[in-house]
Amino acid sequence: MEIRRIAVFGAGVMGAGIAQDAAAHGLEVVLVDQTESGLSHARQSIENSLNLELQRWGITGSEKKILLSHIKFTVNPGDVGSVDLVIEAIPDDLGAKQDLFAQLEAQFEHMCPGEITYVSNTAILSITDIALKMVNKERLVGMHFLAPVPAIKLVEMVRGVHTSQTTVDRAKELARRMGKTPVDVLENPGYITARLVVPLINEAIMVYQEGTASKEDIDVAMRLGFGFNKGPFALADQIGLDIVLGWSENLFRELGETRYRPQALIRNLARRGHLGVKTGKGFYSYENCVDNVEEKI
Amino acid sequence: MKVLVLNCGSSSIKYKLYDDDQQLAEGLLEKIGTAQAQLNHTVILEHQAGIELILKALVDPEKGVLTSIEDIQAVGHRVVHGAESFSESTLITPEVVAKIEECIDIAPLHNPPNLAGIYSISYLLPKVPQVAVFDTAFHQTMPEKAFIYAIPYVFYTRNHIRKYGFHGTSHYFVSHEAAAILGRPIDELKLITCHLGNGSSITAVDHGKSVDTSMGFTPLEGLPMGTRCGDVDPAVPLYIMGKEELNLQQINALLNKHSGVLGISGISNDFRALEEEADKGDKRATLALEVYCYKLKKYIGSYIAAMNGADAIVFTGGIGENSDVVRELVVKDMEFLGIELDADKNHAKRRGEAGDISMPSSRIKVLIIPTNEELVIARDTRRIAAAN
């Protein structure tokens, strides 16, 4: 059965990005959040992203309207109705995710018995652990999208111990519908992306703090020297420093190796609310930037 | 035989129902995919839902023209791009669908909605034969020297990159109608057919065959259009991409959706709006019209050269049929080539009316001929469905 209508629970950066990208690829999307303010922030961030794309000639005004008309925003899970697939995109808190999937299963199995695929957009957690309180554990699969979702064509497909092949195939169909290339990963901590990028960012911070080079020059060296699209500092700002910090803490706890240990500089910036591109300031300042020009701080 | 003809665009579906050559019904469903989509004020969110509504309307006890949906004996689809795989209309089979899908890369605006129409009919009327009539088919007679681009030849053999041309069904129809108006057999005529609508193209039709046309590998080449750029220096998009750091999707949308007369004027892609603004003195609206008509005039000159003469220039399509301003700007000051427009006849022509608008002394006639692509599609569909 073709995937036509999906629900996304959690309207943060990832949830809004997934909703926007799914709608851009012709899917009907219901975006659910606990608060009206969360939804209105998500709507605003989707509109901002579309306005930027409009400014950069990528879409037309009428395409923007069509895309927005494909997303329904609601605080009431009961308004979701019948869907083919549910994506959870709340923060990476194991207990919260376990409870949410138990609730979702109770809600949707009654409405669409045996037909729903459940997806967790976790970057780091075990799918087997997340499925703990579910009855139909075989129907949960992980899809790790990366921000900004519309621009990044990768999704890590994470299989838990119980995940069935049918569930994986269905999630891959969604990935293809959204123009993403799926890569298969086991549910080891950090999968491919977080596992490799955290030590890179940590090491870049050490090189900077040792006085070897400035942040700007480290980024330039990695971009021009090794063909990175962004250097490690700009990359961390794009991912979000709170997210990078969460990944570091989790990887350090799970794997115990010092290369994953959270860096004080990131922790300090995050405490001050400087989370990167999304807050206008991180390692660099992004205030008043209309495009991808990085201003030095 | 009752034949339903569908022309599925990205946001609209045009349909006509024929019984042999007699048209029983026609309609237009607009703004598909938006909350404002309307056919009798009903919200439509996708092509299949739209086609279901069309079928319902056709059997409506009060306004409908059919007693049962089963009266539809065949469905004909306009399909924009058939590449070199199709030089004529064809019965739709899974293999044909796969080949049309292969062409999505080179006709990203058009082939997907055409396919949506085919998928929808396969689902809604699974037993009814469907026929694809390609915009590219008529131009398959172009000689190699007209369709090969001056880039390494391997791109033709490996990637099938060449000029294909579009609006073939319309150029075919109006060239045959022109022969009837001129009272001469088509195989002794040299014609230049101008299909001018939101997409515009011009074709040199020599003895009934397309020998050159302005659209190319995609419908982006040639004349400037409503929102498409037409011919530009190929270095320009590369320069803009570098300067503005645009990706492929963004430059593609810039050239296809933000350019043309809309891009020049900054006002509209609608020529009626441009003519109104130009009348009020808007300089960029005037410039947009001038750029469009100047380019068209140059194409006409080049096709007269390519065919060593012409018997008639034919205007068709929404703009070609209805804009006396455009027609006049295009063919005036071409007396040297034997083209003399009768200004009074040009202004007097009414919507939907065919006829000659040149002076009796004009060596090259100037004709207006309303196009009827759907009739060609209905005839081909009938012929092919009956043979299968």
Q: Identify the overall geometry of chain A.
A: globular
- What is the CATH topology classification name of the largest domain in chain B? Nucleotidyltransferase, domain 5
Secondary structure tally: strands of chain A: 8
Number of domains of chain B: 2
Radius of gyration of chain A: 19 Å
User: Strand share of the residues of chain A?
Assistant: 5-15%
- Percentage of helical residues of chain B? 25-40%
Helix content of chain A: 40-55%
CATH architecture of the largest domain in chain B: 2-Layer Sandwich
Low-confidence stretches of chain B: 34-38, 40-44
The CATH C-level class name of the largest domain in chain B:
Alpha Beta
Q: If you compute it from the alpha carbons, what radius of gyration of chain B comes out, rounded to the nearest whole angstrom?
A: 21 Å
Main beta-sheet strand count, sense and barrel state of chain A: 8 strands, mixed
CATH class of the largest domain in chain A: Alpha Beta
CATH topology of the largest domain in chain A: Rossmann fold
* Strand percent estimate of chain B: 15-25%
Q: What is the assigned CATH homologous superfamily of the largest domain in chain A? A: NAD(P)-binding Rossmann-like Domain
CATH superfamily of the largest domain in chain B: ATPase, nucleotide binding domain
Low-confidence stretches of chain A: 289-297
Distance between the termini of chain B: 14 Å
Walk me through the structure:
The complex is a heterodimer of chains A (297) and B (388). Chain A has an eight-stranded mixed beta sheet with strand order 3-2-1-4-5-6-7-8, sandwiched between helices. In chain A, β5, α5 (127-130) and β6 (140-145) form a beta-alpha-beta unit. Chain A has 297 residues and is an alpha/beta fold. Chain A has two domains: 5-186, NAD(P)-binding Rossmann-like Domain (Rossmann fold, 3-Layer(aba) Sandwich), CATH 3.40.50.720; 193-279, Orthogonal Bundle (N-(1-d-carboxylethyl)-l-norvaline Dehydrogenase, domain 2). Chain A is globular, with a radius of gyration of 19 Å. Chain A has helices at residues 13-24, 36-55, 61-69, 94-111, 127-130, 165-177, 193-209, 215-226, 232-239, 241-255, 264-271, and strands at 5-9, 28-32, 71-74, 85-88, 117-120, 140-145, 154-159, 181-186. Chain B is globular, with a radius of gyration of 21 Å. By secondary structure, chain B is of the alpha/beta class. Chain B has a six-stranded mixed beta sheet, sandwiched between helices. Chain B has helices at residues 47-58, 94-102, 111-124, 144-147, 154-159, 168-182, 235-244, 248-257, 260-265, 271-279, 283-307, 317-322, 324-331, 343-348, 373-387; strands spanning 2-8, 13-19, 22-29, 74-79, 90-91, 130-134, 190-196, 200-206, 209-213, 312-316, 355-356, 365-368. Chain B is built from 15 helices and twelve strands.
